[in-house]
């Protein structure tokens, strides 16, 4: 009986500890890993970030015009729903969010301060969170058509930005050949 009450007490403490350590809204990225990433160079050849898609299946959709005067800052990689989306680089998960344009999106801070944008996901990998470190080829989510892609075929929108989050877009197509 005494053993049992001990066990209950320990369990209660564990549960309370778990509650009080719930992460706050914005988690700062680990600065050591950020500086290490900034010092790395971004390769000219990156793995295609959707499992099962080959280089000769890619279409260069960079720069095509979009609604409201926007133009296409990335590449659309067509793939069946729930195909595995893998990181094209190593880096830090910098943001996981949902919005009306990109749907479920992931931003990864990669080598040389590059930013990588993965959009229209069906969902991100279960348990993935801001601050996680990923390597090229690691699973981060699944292909879908969330956001403004809801009336299109399922695809991954992948964008590379060289001058910060959302700044200095470059065409991913030559990187994926
Ligand atoms: Zn796109």
Number of domains: 1
Could you tell me the CATH topology label.
Glucose Permease (Domain IIA)
Cα(first) to Cα(last) distance is 67 Å
Element order: H for helix, E for strand:
HHEEEEEEEEE
Q: Please report the total strand number as a whole number.
A: 9
Task: Give a written overview of the molecule.
By secondary structure, the chain is α+β, with helices and mostly antiparallel strands. The protein has one domain (37-176): Glucose Permease (Domain IIA) (Distorted Sandwich). It is 16% helix and 28% strand. It contains two helices and nine strands, in the order H-H-E-E-E-E-E-E-E-E-E. It has helices at 2-20, 31-39; strands at 75-78, 84-86, 91-99, 103-109, 115-124, 133-134, 139-143, 155-161, 169-170. Strands 1, 2, 3, 4, 5, 6, 7, 8 and 9 form a nine-stranded antiparallel β-sheet that branches. The structure holds zinc ion. Zinc ion (ZN) binds at residues 72, 74, 76, 157.
Question: What's a quick, concise take on this entry?
Answer:
The chain has 2 helices and 9 strands. It is α+β, with helices and mostly antiparallel strands and 177 residues long. The chain is globular, with a radius of gyration of 19 Å.
């Amino acid at each position: 009986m005494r053993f049992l009450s001990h066990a209950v007490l320990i369990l209660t403490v564990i549960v309370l500890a778990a509650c009080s350590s719930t992460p706050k809204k914005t988690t700062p990225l680990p600065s050591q890993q950020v500086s290490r990433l900034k010092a790395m160079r971004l390769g000219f050849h990156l793995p295609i970030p959707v499992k099962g898609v080959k280089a000769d299946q890619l279409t260069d959709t960079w720069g095509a015009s979009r609604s409201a005067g926007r133009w296409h800052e990335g590449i659309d990689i067509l793939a069946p729903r729930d195909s595995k989306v893998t990181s094209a680089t190593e880096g830090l998960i910098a943001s996981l969010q949902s919005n009306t344009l990109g749907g479920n999106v992931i931003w990864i801070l990669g080598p040389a301060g590059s930013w990588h944008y993965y959009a229209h996901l069906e969902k991100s990998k279960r348990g993935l969170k801001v601050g996680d470190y990923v390597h090229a080829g690691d699973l981060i989510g699944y292909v879908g058509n969330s956001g403004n892609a809801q009336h299109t075929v399922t695809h991954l929108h992948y964008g590379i930005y060289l001058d910060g989050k959302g700044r200095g877009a470059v065409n991913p197509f030559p990187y994926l050949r």
